Amino acid sequence: PVVTILGHVDHGKTTLLDSIRKSKVVDKEAGSITQHIGAYQVEFNGNAITFLDTPGHEAFTAMRARGARITDIVVLVVAADDGIMPQTIEAINHAKAAGVPIVVAINKVDRAEADSERVKRQLSENDLLVEDWGGDVIAIPLSALNGEGVPNLLENILVLAEISDFKANPDRLATGIVVEAKIDKSKGSLVTVLVQAGTLRVGDNVVAGNISGRIRAMLGDDGERLKEAVPSMPVEVLGLNGIPDAGEQLVVLSDEKSAKETIQAWEREKRSEKGTISLEGIRYSLESGEVKSLNLIIKTDVQGSLEPVITALQNLNTDEYRVNIIHAASGSVTESDILLAVASKAIIIGFNRRPEPGASILAAQRFIDIRFYDVIYALLDDVEI
Ligand code: GDP
């Protein structure tokens, strides 16, 4: 499984990532420096688990907005002394919109103020019913700081992976996703790739977006030289002629000359990508029967107006037509909301709320429709089919 850790700021995402990474280096020689690439793999009970080292749902959703399906499991970190906070709810909605199963890490249980039961109750209020509460969401109490409970988390990630039956064929031309890329003064282009299918090998001719090249060398997450990488392995690739964008797909070509054609095809596709998600466009698709639901992200001025807006919208649901509320919260429309809208093909509704300046720019770039209303009936008028 490939795992992303999400949660509210200061709830312990980085500490947990570090704690898991350390469990790996323990048995290595002291002094061996872990090279930092955008992801790392640990072995637990004879199985490998890959962790993406970019905590935060902005990165998660930015990847998804590019069409990259990179995460198999989300670990949602909730600090037991703080409980569920606005970014926790955002993270839950981002994971749900991506259709990725969630394992909850109830963190900081070493603290005197820790209250795991409260966290479980709050989770249930957000449609995440943990096992003690009769649901099927795994919740593991742990302390990222002292490591207690962390092996139990890893064990349960593997259980979930087993149930979900993640598979990939190593015997084909490899494809992967670019996790990050940079230029190094002496080594040139360094591209971190997560292999998704097939086996990536030194000497392969590859294309990622409009960047191409022959793989000169590959380094693992500890900086060790590798000849090949199988699915879910993160590797650093040397030899490309530039830096592709994060989230871009990397593909192996059967021969060198097809690189140019592949890049041309990619550029054609980019140009023809309409990407526009507007209420009118969706109305047309609804009326022509192409789609049956309307995805919405709702932002309101105050918490109190959230509930009536949601209820009024849900009342529009019929057998043929569904209003899907992907995320609803009070506050301004943020860049994170725009990325979620891109990834989920959603329209954003701002109720008595203007967007943040950065969000307006991003919305224009990504062709996202943001609608503003100050009275409910005007909103219902527009959304009703
Ligand atoms: P992030 O913002 O979610 O990445 O949170 P950090 O990992 O940076 O942690 C925020 C703070 O909480 C830091 O001061 C950590 O040392 C502390 N912290 C994280 N995990 C634990 C834990 O299990 N127990 C305690 N007591 N503190 C923790």
Notes on the protein architecture:
With 385 residues, the chain is an alpha/beta fold. It is 32% helix and 29% strand. It is built from 11 helices and 19 strands. The protein has helices at 13-25, 57-65, 86-98, 116-125, 150-164, 258-272, 279-287, 303-314, 335-344, 357-365, 376-383, and strands at 2-7, 39-44, 47-52, 73-79, 102-107, 139-141, 175-184, 188-197, 200-201, 205-208, 211-219, 225-226, 228-229, 234-240, 249-253, 293-300, 322-330, 347-351, 370-373. It has a 6-stranded mixed sheet, sandwiched between helices. α3 (86-98) links the parallel β4 and β5. α2 (57-65) runs parallel beside α3 (86-98) and α2 (57-65) packs parallel to α9. Mean pLDDT is 87; it is low at 26-34. Bound molecules: guanosine-5'-diphosphate. Guanosine-5'-diphosphate is lined by residues 7, 9-15, 55, 107-108, 110-111, 143-145.
Short structural description:
The chain is of the alpha/beta class and 385 residues long.
